[in-house]
Specification:
Elements lengths: L11 H9 L1 H25 L9 H13 L4 H11 L4 H17 L3 H25 L21 H20 L3 H24 L5 H23 L6 H11 L1
Helix pairs in contact: 2-9, 4-8, 5-6, 5-7, 6-7, 6-9, 7-8, 7-9, 8-9
């Protein structure tokens, strides 16, 4: 008689993480969609810039023209202030607040996750700009101080990766699913505002903003997906599941 084939052993955490974690699949789906959007934008800008009924150049000019027609001294000042939501100083303050919450919860793994997401995001943003070396728009306001590279928008990359990560940690400690959803929606609104302000100020082309936002979001959710394998269920989520079961 032949012996029955022994099942291949799979690490428990990997097995538990794949079918039993909807968030993991959501994160991986978001990574794939955002990565596709980034590479599609790269192809649109560097391979199909002048092809089709509207190439990348025409698209950028159309979006910039629509937003910049509303330029005025008063509005420009307010837009510049809103653009600071994606600046390094503002994100640093937000990061300190996030670190204070993580440390207070004694979440060591969360501390590592937050550090990898933020530091890695800052590095990747500059590496990608160095790789593509696209010039800034001609409509750039003369008093605005910017770096040399334009594609993808490091401002939007940093804002997307940071705010998506902050939303992850808020959702992790939130007691209600509605609060978790609201955190991600609010993060998306902030990133959208930052992107619009960068085009209005002439700091970036619209395709720079799209690529930077897509790449930053992909990075944030990629890191979140990796750390999801090691995270234990948070007390807030455990209470949430218990309340639903009763």
């Amino acid at each position: 008689m032949t012996k029955a084939a022994q099942p291949v052993e799979v690490p428990r955490k990997l097995l538990a993480g794949l079918p039993g974690s909807p968030r993991l699949w959501l994160f991986l789906t978001a990574v794939c969609l955002c990565a596709f959007a980034f590479f599609a934008t790269v192809g649109f800008v560097y391979h199909d810039a002048h092809e089709g009924p509207m190439g990348a150049t025409d698209f950028d000019q159309a979006v910039a023209g629509f937003l910049q027609q509303y330029r005025s001294p008063g509005l420009t000042g307010r837009v510049f202030e809103m653009s600071a939501l994606g600046s390094a100083p503002v994100l640093a303050v937000m990061a300190l607040l996030a670190y204070s919450v993580v440390l207070r919860a004694r979440d060591r793994l969360g501390f590592v996750h937050l550090t990898v997401a933020l530091v890695g995001g800052a590095i990747w943003a500059r590496v990608l700009q160095h790789m593509f070396e696209r010039a800034r728009p001609e409509e750039l306001l003369p008093w605005l101080v910017v770096t040399k590279g334009s594609f993808p928008s490091a401002h939007c990359f940093g804002a997307a990766s940071a705010y998506a990560t902050f939303a992850f940690f808020y959702a992790r400690y939130a007691a209600r699913l509605s609060a978790e959803i609201a955190a991600y929606v609010f993060a998306g609104v902030l990133v959208t505002i930052v992107g619009i302000t960068r085009i209005y100020l002439g700091a970036h082309h619209a395709t720079d903003v799209l690529a930077g936002t897509a790449a930053g979001t992909a990075w944030a959710f990629f890191v979140a997906a990796i750390f999801t394998f090691w995270y234990e269920p948070s007390p807030a989520r455990t209470m949430r599941v218990g309340a639903v079961s009763h």
